[in-house]
Amino acid sequence: MSLSPRNKLRLLGILPLIFFIAQFVHYWPINELGHMFWMCNIGNLILAMGLFLEKPVLIRLAAIWTIPGFVVWFIYVVLTWGVFLTSTLAHAGGLIVAMIAIRHYRMDRTAWRWAFGWYLAIQLASRFFTPAALNVNLAHAVQPGFEQTFPSYWTFWLVLTAATIVILWSVGLLLWSLWPDMREERVIL
C-alpha cells in the first residue's frame, strides 16, 4: 500500500507529537510539568497539529521557532548539563521535522508575525501557569547572570521582546529566502 505525498506529510506529524509526549514522560515523574510550556516543547505540539491539519501557518511559526530554540537549548542545556534523549528529540528532532515540512509548505514573508504573536501568548501562559522557580520562557525573572545589566524584570522583558522580534524576523527571512512560498509571489506580482 502506497501513501500519497500529502498523507506522508500528515503522518510526519507523528514525530513531533512523540517528541512532545517524550518530554511529558520525562517531566511527569520529577513533578516539573511546567517545563512543558517551553517554546520548543509547545512548538513540537504546534508542528504536529499543523502537519495533521495541513495548516501552513502553524507549521511556519513552529519552524521559525525551531532555529532560535535549538541555539538556546544548545547553549543553556547541552553545554551546561549534557545531552538527554528526550531533550535532543524535542530540539534536534523538531528542527529536522520542521525543515522537512517547510520544504513542502514553504515560507511566507509574514510568518514571523505569527511566531511573535505566539511568543506573546506563550509568555503570558508561562507567567500564569508555570512556577516562578522554573522561570519558563523567562516569564518570571531576569535570566541569571544579567541581574546587573537589568535591575528591573520589565526592562529585561522589553529588551528580550525587542530582540525576539529581530530574531524571528531574521529567521523568517532566512527560511523565506531558502523556501519562498511561490503562491505569495504570484499575489505580489
Order of helices and strands: HHHHHHHH
Instruction: Kindly report how far apart the N and C termini lie.
Output: 42 Å
Q: List low-pLDDT spans.
A: none
Q: What is the averaged pLDDT score?
A: 94
How much helicity do the residues have?
A: over 70%
- Approximate strand percentage: under 5%
Radius of gyration: 17 Å
Largest sheet: number of strands, sense, barrel closure = none
Shape designation: globular
Structural class: mainly alpha
Counting DSSP E segments of at least 2 residues, the number of strands comes to: 0
Number of domains: 1
Number of helical segments with 4 or more residues: 8
Question: How does the SSE layout of this entry go?
Answer:
Layout: H1 5-12, H2 14-27, H3 39-53, H4 56-81, H5 85-105, H6 111-129, H7 153-178, H8 182-188
Helix pairs in contact: 1-3, 2-3, 2-5, 3-4, 3-5, 4-5, 4-6, 4-7, 6-7
Task: Give structural notes.
With 189 residues, this protein is mainly alpha-helical. It has one domain (5-188). The chain is 72% helix and 0% strand. The protein has eight helices and no strands. α2 (14-27) packs antiparallel against α3, α2 (14-27) runs antiparallel to α5 and α6 packs antiparallel against α7 (153-178). It is globular. The protein starts with a helix and ends with a helix.
Short description:
By secondary structure, the chain is mostly helical. It contains eight helices and no strands.
What are the key terms here?
single chain, 189 residues, mainly alpha, globular
